[in-house]
Write a structure and sequence with these properties.
Blueprint: H1 14-27, H2 32-36, E1 39-44, E2 57-70, E3 73-84, E4 90-101, E5 107-118
Parallel strand pairs: 1-5
Antiparallel strand pairs: 2-3, 3-4, 4-5
């Protein structure tokens, strides 16, 4: 690099920011309608089984263990603790998501690659 040059360091990619903000909003109690505003209208969601964003669970805690991001795409691993609204049953689980974002920062893809829930017992 020549003298006087600049190096731009971007600490967070758009997809990482979108994922963290999505889960932070979910844990804070955002409704599915509020969460939907974070998605592009034509998003490829494949939401079968994505209870993390639905109304059936009160998500109490999420740990995002790994976010591997390259360009506009990321694979996210994490753990979650939630309570089933209808029964009060506590569930804990691991998940893996495949997420992408557009230039506008809206999520364009969100697929569950793995989701395991267990009932750890009384809390």
């Amino acid at each position: 690099m020549h003298a006087g040059g600049a190096v731009e360091i971007r600490a967070e990619s758009g997809v990482r920011v979108a994922v963290v903000e999505l889960f932070a909003a979910r844990v804070a109690g955002a409704s599915p309608r509020d969460l939907a505003r974070r998605f592009d209208a034509d998003a490829d969601t494949g939401f079968e089984g994505l209870a993390l964003l639905g109304e059936a669970l009160d998500v109490e805690h999420v740990d995002l263990d790994t976010i591997r991001a390259e360009g506009d795409r990321a694979v996210v691993t994490g753990t979650c603790r939630a309570r089933v609204r209808a029964t009060g049953l506590v569930l804990a689980g691991e998940f893996v998501l495949d997420v992408a974002v557009g230039l506008d920062g809206l999520i364009t893809r969100c697929h569950v690659l793995e989701e395991r829930w267990t009932a750890p017992g009384p809390s």
